[in-house]
Amino acid sequence: MKNQQQLNPKKTSFRWVIVALLFFSTTIVYFDRVILGILAPFITEEIGWSEQEYGYVVFAFQLTYAIGPLFIGYVIDRLGTRLGFSLAVVVWGLASLSHAAARSWLGFAIARLGLGVGQSANFPASIKTIAEWFPQKERAYATGVFNGGSNIGQVLAPLLIPVVLYFFVSWQYVFVLSLILSVIWLILWLILYNSPQESRFTNSAEREYILSDSGDLEGVKVPWKKLVKVRQTWVIALGKLFTDPVWYFYLFWGAKFLNSRFGVELKGLALPLIVIYVVAWGGGMGGGAISSYFLKEGKTINFSRKVTMLGTAILVLPVMLVPFIDSLPICVGLIALAAAAHNSWSVNIFTVASDLFPKKVVGSVIGFSTTVSSIAGMITALLIGWMLTESGVDGYVLPFVIAAFGYLAGLLVIHLISPKLKPVSSVSIGIDINNK
Fold first, then answer.
1. Which of 40, 79, 199, 374 could bridge to 66 as Cys pair (CB 3.0-4.6 Å)?
2. What is the 3-state secondary structure (H, E, C) of 323-374?
3. What does the alpha-carbon distance between residue 17 and residue 418 come to, in Å, rounded to a whole number?
4. Would you list the DSSP string of 265-284?
5. CA separation, residue 328 to residues 98, 168, 315 (Å)
6. Who's near 296: CB < 8 A, 6+ residues apart?
């Protein structure tokens, strides 16, 4: 019996430790992103930047986050996941710390440029890591697990920032905390991560399991000039273009709105933001579950995705009332509902990408679509900054109205481009998807 166990050892489960590391990195990424939005009212009193200048700061992050996907995948492929991801975290950790030295909006903008470059690597590196460490049948679930860090980061920020300010008084130490979290992650990553074949924490049974259906392990590189010619690519790109800027609006201006409209100070932001992002997390899980339910009931992919996204788009509509309501709890509730609906939309638009494209091509499609939506986010940041500069708190009216109708507009465009959500073929994309 003992010899039999030695011949057929029980497989280790170290791949889930790797998922935990990816969850941690994604948490840091969103913690970093939301810091500025939470501290903005506080920093404004010290630095005195205008709404337009704050828009420039947000624009700076969006600029490099849009450019990053153009080259970051190549860098990670050349250096390897272990070294490439490590380098990215060093870049974003130092960029985050550099915020502490900023004394003007321009200093913050420069810091955000570096942050956008580093953080643009998180999702490409994480998806590549999942491909290296998981068989195809477990990848979707593993991706869903690590992506939960995006919500946890946004929940932790309003909890930790007041604590840091209480003990250290100065807002600069919040960015020091961000660097410390990045350093902890980097140490753990370098200690624990290696390829499954080289890892000392896996046994032969787990390595065999990881490679059990590895035909799609690395994927293929698809030139963007081929992608832009395929209408299915624009289903994803425009689906994100109409809605991602709305999410960035909540992320970067949500705390500022609550401060301007209701006078909510830093310590009072914790509960509203926690409510918004916890509800948003639930919306993502609910949106995925609903469309999956329709599929299990025998409905088509076209029906399942579009009906779920239609429900999402309808749930967003009440957010247009937020600038006109005098009740803080009701406003927070409506923003939370809209944020939950966005997460439902996001889950489904990512799933549509895998519905329409072979798994080997999905990464390229998502990268292209992220660049497109980030460009829209850059323009939106400048426009919002201008409107708030010109109109003060009344300048929030148009952004909330646009946010309310963006999802319906996006769904209409998607339906016009692809009435049946017909999957792409290797002929239409112009490559042999069966060859690497």
1. 374
2. HHCCCHHHHHHHHHHHHHHHHHHHHHHHHHHHHHCCHHHHHHHHHHHHHHHH
3. 40
4. -GGGGHHHHHHHHHHHHHHH
5. 34, 29, 19
6. none
User: For residue 23, what pLDDT band results from cuts at 50, 70 and 90?
Assistant: very high
Q: What pLDDT, in 10s, does the model give residues 239-289?
A: 999 999 999 999 889 888 998 889 887 777 788 988 998 898 888 778 888
pTM recorded for the entire structure: 0.79
Mark 33-54 as b/e (b = at least 16 C-beta within 10 Å).
bbbbbbbbbbbbeebebebbbb
Dihedral sign, Cα of residue 348, residue 354, residue 356, residue 362? positive
Token digits of residue 84:
């490439």
Q: Which is nearest to 279 in space by CA: 231, 239, 319? A: 319
Q: Which two tokens stand for residue 185?
A: 């992650």
**Alpha carbon separation from 396 to 90, 332, 382 (Å, rounded):** 36, 15, 13
Residue with tokens 């190549």: 74
